[in-house]
Amino acid sequence: MLFGFPLLSLVIWLPIIVGLIVLAIGNDRNTLLSRWLSLVGAIFGLIVALPLYTRFDPALSTMQFVEQYVWFERLNVYYHVGVDGISMPLILLNCFITPLVVIAGWEVIRERVSQYLGAFLIMSGIVNGVFASLDAVLFYTFWEASLIPMFIIIGVWGGPNRVYAAIKFFLYTLLGSLLMLIALIYLYHVSDGSFSILDYHQLPIAMTPQILIFIAFLLAFAVKVPMWPVHTWLPDAHVEAPTGGSVVLAAILLKLGGYGFLRFSLPIAPDASLYLADLIVLLSLIAVVYIGLVALMQQDMKKLIAYSSVSHMGFVTLGFFMLNGLGVEGAMVQMISHGFISGAMFLCVGVLYDRLHSRQIADYGGVINKMPIFAAFFMLFAMANAGLPGTSGFVGEFMVIMGAIEVNFWYAFFAAMTLILGAAYTLWMYKRVIFGAVANSNVEGLEDISKREFILLVILAIAVLWLGIYPFPLTEIMHATVDNLLEHMTHSKL
Amino acid sequence: MEKLYLLVPLAPLAGAIIAGLFGRFIGTTWSHRTTIFLVFISLIASLVIFTDVLQGNIYNGSVYTWMVLGETHFEVGFLIDPLSATMMVVVSLVSLMVHIYTIGYMHGDPGYQRFFSYISLFTFSMLMLVMSNNFLQLFFGWEAVGLVSYLLIGFWYTRPTATYANLKAFLVNRVGDFGFLLGIGLVLMYFGTLDYEIVFAHAGHIASHFIEIIPGQPWMLMTVICLLLFVGAMGKSAQFPLHVWLPDSMEGPTPISALIHAATMVTAGIFMVARMSPLFELSETALSAILVIGGITTLFMALVAVVQNDIKRVVAFSTLSQLGYMTVALGASAYSIAIFHLMTHAFFKAVLFLGAGSVIIAMHHEQDMRQMGGLKQFMPITYWTMFIAALASAGVPGFSGFFSKDAIIEAVKYTDIPGGEFAYFCVLTTVFVTALYTFRLMFMTFHGKTRMDAHTRDHLHESPWVVTVPLMVLAVPTIAAGWLIGTMVFGDYFGDAIQIRPEHEAVASLKAEFTGVFGMILHAFSTTPFWLSLGGILTAWFLYLYKTEIPGKIRKLAGPIYTLLDRKYYIDEIYSWVFAGGTRMLGTVLWKIGDVKIIDGFFVNGSARVVALIAAAARQFQSGYIYHYAFTMIVGIFVLMSLWLFYF
């Protein structure tokens, strides 16, 4: 609450309400109204979220902007929301990406425009709800609800194989989530009827149930992140999703998994987390190296970036389970940075796809001759994807590697391989698509980016560079929360 | 003063931004005027700072805080001492000359503004690298110069060879950075900070610390750190076996070869090791490895230079060999001599490259020396400046290269570090080879008969002043920079910036023998290096001017050896087969078999299929025919009754 004003609820519900209005009034005859209404709504969504940052007290590790109302009294279910240094940056990232997605679909989406935009706005609000929920039932509701808009976006506006991809996406994530539901019900029982996530943090639990709880949560979150070997839904989903869908999927939805580890797995089952840390580290390193190699061989640009996403998200899970300040904060930075970079990369591929309707690397070559401005932006984002210092991509990877070396030299060794692999797959793709002489008559006819695309890419370029050159403001708001989490982890719950 | 420090890197950065973002609006002329003016400002500021540092004013402070984590502060800041001040002057001077030269060389190129933007950006990055007061910013600059190098090698992006070379350069450098970053990680872990001053001050405390990277194998921590850091230097300074990118980098425009791939960027590794002297001094093993790697690079790359026919490639391999000299000096604990050679080399190699570029312009972008010859009469300024540089490169007494190279050879002779004898053999032999390939280049290009076609010969002329003036300006330090040896190497010039432990006495021994510049020149005539150098020049004269039919015969006679050198020891082929091919094969296997067959094929779609199978089987029971259900019921009753009868 800010001066008695339910700020956080506004951040959650404003996009949803605007989304519903867009759905209600829009039709394909007057798309401009839906577009402008959505854009204004998305921008307002960002503006109302800004006080979360400016009014945030970075010295506190407790929840801020808390609101709590009774929902189902008999079951102890509350509408209980609040943010700390972990969830607040993610909410801001989400609110930042939403207007970009609306702009990205401006001229591209021509069918069922209001439904498309409505789905994105509603999803934006739902995702804010996931990050802000402090009540397990509320959390689970938002968590599962977030699947629906994306399922529709892929299934309706997707590519030729969209139905397979949408169902794969839906089943994969749903199956993971079901075990989480069981874990939450179990926690409800052992906590004598509380659905408060913060209560669970303090709950003593024996080792065996801790491990089972950890694994239940792991399945839910690992699918979302996604971790190796439950990652195969992501390339399919990305390939079939429309550009905006890919952007939100990579930039936002993957972060739900990462967030889950910090909000549930680590604080609720700290002993199991320590016990199973090596397993997660192993899976994360496989993600970094194995997926990096797989990415190298992709022929489809979107698939390549999707695999690169999995590889980069490997750094997130790796950082969490280093269980030190550098690792956890580095992983957080990596999540935010990946939001910017993967979003930008998918937008760049979208720019090409809108023109030639192909994502195959082989269909391009020499694009720089026809689209020099685009090539410059793409270069920046490719370098950021390769983790070049001065871009946001470096900060998180650097911190996680520094955190990893404190734990075990070899963790850092394998993680640092991304320096080579990341550069190899990103720049090799760049070389084949952008450099060279004009490859064919289609490329010959390309036109450089429009004003609309320019604005999108400039905004993301500024974000990527700002975070790379001056990450201080971002890390500053996380310190207290992360320190508190790590301190909490040192106390056994047995 | 502090504002001046900021001005040094920020002026070229402003130039890069103006030329890069607004180049198309302000046009070519204003792009080069702006960038050159701003680099000139940077040079003036560097010179002011340099004189100030000579007064003993050393500065170490932060500009802004990048990030804070617990007790650790990650800062962006400057350490201005004799070492960085020297580098700042060298970098901004060579950069300014290359900026001016570029006006002539890149005239009419469609990417004119972009080129100026890149070289200014490079200057900014390189200055940030040398001015840094901590490892993080060092790494920033390190990667940033790598980025600009990548962009510039691929400047002519429609050429497949250029885009191949730039990708290769970036990836090989990344292999080096991989080690470098791990080294930085260990520094952060054991010192709790990345600030040079604190790290160097505490280095002694963990000198005897051991770590077990492989369980049961205790290794000295300092050795591990230094070797990892040196892997980074091997990438950037193109030391064997990470040297493969530098020859290919010649695909970039020639001014870049001079600025980045000869004078400045490739010396970043040398600079880094010298900067880290308090750490490297603590590990005899690391120094030993550096000596050996430097020795290999010095000799074997020089040998390749002898058989190259592309004028730029000769100079490129010469650069590799000269970097090897610097590395050997580092390994012998003669850091000041390494920096000294870095400086003299920056000047004479810049002249050689810019001169080669001038020749290439005159030859209408023909780079094969077999098509040249007799250019002396057509381009006297280019010839004479290059001749001076060739003398310096060959180590003829009095020229800058002589002082630095002679000092290196002497230092290696005095070192007790294991590997010193091997390195000594390499650097000594290479004196002959260096003189040979340098003068082979000079004779094939400028002397003898003209071998180009008539059309080219009729159009031969000296390059415009924007090309020749930088050559002449740089020729001055090519002659004179060596005379500073008394101050820079044997004086107390570097102060605390370079620390040498008393038991590594190579430089101290040389200092005791040093009798002034003229004494050194006079003494040279009685030493082996001088006669080797003279022998090399005479051999080149004999083979390429006097008896020009002999090289062909030698080539036939020494067939396999010639091929081995010509193919650069087949290292490129091996790397391409093992690393590039191996990685791609592994990627394909993991993708097609791991992801597609096993995970998706077996587990994901497999479990879907199992569900479908069970469902299909279960569906059989629901046929909808009443007699099926009746029959099943009867069977069931029969079974139940039998069980009932049997048990009761």
How would you sum up this structure, described in words?
The complex is a heterodimer of chains A (494) and B (648). Chain A is built from 22 helices and two strands. In chain A, helix 12 packs antiparallel against helix 13. Chain A is mainly α. The mean pLDDT of chain A is 89. Chain B is mainly alpha-helical and 648 residues long. Chain B has helices spanning 2-54, 82-105, 112-131, 135-153, 160-191, 196-202, 221-236, 245-248, 254-263, 268-275, 277-280, 284-307, 311-331, 335-362, 380-394, 400-414, 420-446, 454-458, 465-480, 485-488, 506-513, 517-524, 528-546, 550-557, 559-566, 571-620, 626-647, and strands at residues 59-69, 72-80, 210-211, 219-220. In chain B, strand 3 and strand 4 (219-220) form a beta hairpin. The longest helix of chain B is centred in the N-terminal third of the chain and has 53 residues, at 2-54. The mean pLDDT of chain B is 87. Chains A and B meet through helix 12, helix 14, helix 17, helix 18 and helix 19 of A and strand 1, helix 4, helix 5 and helix 26 of B.
